[in-house]
Amino acid sequence: MNKRLELLALGIVLALSRVALSQPILLTFEDISGMSNSPGATVPAPSRLSDFYLAQHGIRFFSGSPFVAVVVHGASTPSGVNILGGTTPGGQLTYQNSNPVEAAFFDPSGSVPYVVSTVSVRGDLTCIAGTKTLEAFSLAGVMLGSDTQLDCNLDPLAVSAPGIHRIRMYSSSATVGFDDLRFDTPVPAPGTCPGDLNGDGFVDDADFVIFVVAYNILDCADPSMPAGCPADLNGDMLVDDADFVVFVAAYNELVCP
Q: What stretches of the chain show up as alpha helix (H) in DSSP?
């Protein structure tokens, strides 16, 4: 690599580091009782994280179950001792990338989708072969950006883009936990139009086709569900009759406000 490219790469790393450190909200998960680091074990109720930070910080967590696991990871943790792990549909701790750690942004009631513009997170400090990834999605489930790094890279994973509603984090090695989640204050999405699932400014038959597919799948944690689960219009991690009521109201309006 020549000197100019080296300086450019260094500039990118420094810029991402500044972005990560400038975000006003930092979650270290130390205020939740962590479980022992035993993949396959059922996550006890005190270690289940879903809406704990919703009222104060506007974020809801989920994985294969409607919660993620808070795990005591010890000294190889970016801050404190706790990290986040995923959960299986049966409620067991897992680090498999088929059940990633996910989160979405909402108003304090959890019923109105909100968005942020910058998110960062750190993997645990244990250096192993493989990669770790952070992905960010819009309200419509469109991927807005992603950051993948080698597991031994201790820099934060970071994505900056307008309109981030959902995030997803996982590793290729199926061993990495996550900590130090940073994001800017969630705000209402400009021009939010529930039911416009393809983002064309209308709620019409094309959106209905997308909704029906998701409705038949039901569970947002199902691997066959479209990325970001955009048809989950009330944010309860299911696409069901409650979402259909919201969709029908938007469908009758047709044109997004």
A: 3-22, 54-57, 205-217, 241-253
CA-CA distance, 199 to 214, in Å (whole number)?
Answer: 16
* pLDDT value at 252 more than 70: yes
- At 34, give phi and psi (nearest 5°): -85, 150
Relative orientation angle of helices 241-253 and 205-217, to the nearest 10 degrees: 180
CA atoms within 13 A on the CB side of 146: 12
Strand partners, 82: 72
Please name the amino acid found at residue 149: Q
- Determine the Cα–Cα distance for residues 166 and 182; give it in Å rounded to an integer: 14
**pTM for this entry:** 0.71
* DSSP-based three-state secondary structure for 94: strand
Find out whether 116 and 137 touch, Cβ atoms under 8 Å. Answer: no
Token pair belonging to 131: 């990669």
All domains in the chain, ordered by first residue = 3-188 (2.60.120), 205-253 (no CATH)
Could you tell me the two tokens for 182? 């940073």
SS (H, E, C) 109-145: CCCCEEEEEEEEEEECCCCCCCEEEEEEECCCCCEEE
pLDDT, tens digit (0-9, with 9 covering 90-100), for 139-190: 878 899 999 999 999 999 999 999 999 999 999 999 999 999 999 999 887 6
| pLDDT tens profile 211-244 | 999 999 998 888 888 876 888 887 677 899 988 9
